[in-house]
Write a structure and sequence with these properties.
The chain is mostly helical. Helix content is 58%, strand content 3%. It has one domain. The protein has 7 helices and 3 strands, in the order H-H-H-H-H-E-E-H-H-E. Strands 1-2-3 form a 3-stranded antiparallel beta sheet. Bound molecules: zinc ion.
Length: 249
């Protein structure tokens, strides 16, 4: 999937819930805002393992205008810091996994990979907040919402990649792979016109857009919004033929 698809689906999925959360927790606007920015960037983060990915460039392929240009400016900074964190994370994972695959859709496209990267991001943000508090006497701990969003966005990214024909091995290096029938632009560029509607990434985007708008219009409670969000994701599995493959084949 292209960076713009990842970013748009993550934004579409999170906006109804975050909007209701503002009503639910008074004075939570900035917490929600930082979570949202974290989710947007996190939705591109696992592709830090692919040199041509949107997170590694100051633009998002096909979408470097409008509001996303502000996210795009943050991309290279987050990417550089994440690339530093990838080294200790790879070292930790190498201690448990022989022949660790750090190439695209390898170790960093797994729950363990994104969790470890998120732990480093959380620690880094906490240290920055602590230094600012000690030196400038300013409390900016509200920024801790950013790594939370980063983790949620990364999980959404893995979910989106699970719709594709190549799929995602969630528990790498073991073999629980979720795989669907969406054929991505990078792998099926020449054949995009011949694809069925269910095989196009743009249809995944359309599905989440329509269902999220319905949830937003008809559900006002934060908990019901969360419930319908989960139902919306699980309903997408049969639609895009997402199935578990436990033998790694
Ligand atoms: Zn990916």
């Amino acid at each position: 999937m292209l960076g713009k698809d990842h970013l748009l689906i993550a934004a579409i999925l999170s906006i109804p819930l975050l909007f209701r959360a503002i009503d639910y927790i008074p004075s939570s606007f900035f917490i929600v805002l930082f979570i949202f920015v974290g989710i947007c960037i996190g939705s591109l983060l696992p592709d830090v393992d692919a040199p041509d990915a949107a997170i590694n460039h100051p633009f998002i392929r096909g979408k470097h205008t409008g509001w996303s240009k502000y996210i795009a400016k943050l991309n290279p900074v987050v990417s550089k810091i994440t690339r530093i964190f990838m080294r200790p994370v790879a070292w930790i994972m190498k201690n448990q996994i022989k022949n660790l695959d750090t190439s695209h859709r390898g170790a960093f496209h797994s729950l363990q990979g994104i969790s470890l990267l998120s732990i480093f991001w959380t620690t880094f943000t906490a240290i920055v907040c602590l230094i600012v508090l000690l030196i400038l006497k300013m409390n900016i701990f509200i920024l801790m919402a950013f790594p939370v969003g980063l983790f949620i966005g990364s999980v959404i990214h893995l979910l989106e990649d699970s719709f594709t024909a190549r799929g995602i091995t969630w528990n790498y290096p073991k073999h629980f792979t979720l795989r669907g029938n969406v054929k991505t632009m990078s792998e099926y560029k020449a054949k995009q016109e011949d694809l069925k509607w269910k095989e196009k990434a743009s249809f995944v985007l359309l599905y989440f857009l329509v269902t999220s708008i319905m949830i937003f219009l008809f559900v006002s409670s934060v908990w019901l919004t969360l419930l319908f969000l989960i139902i919306q994701i699980f309903l997408a599995f049969p639609i895009f033929s997402v199935k578990p493959h436990s033998n790694g084949s």
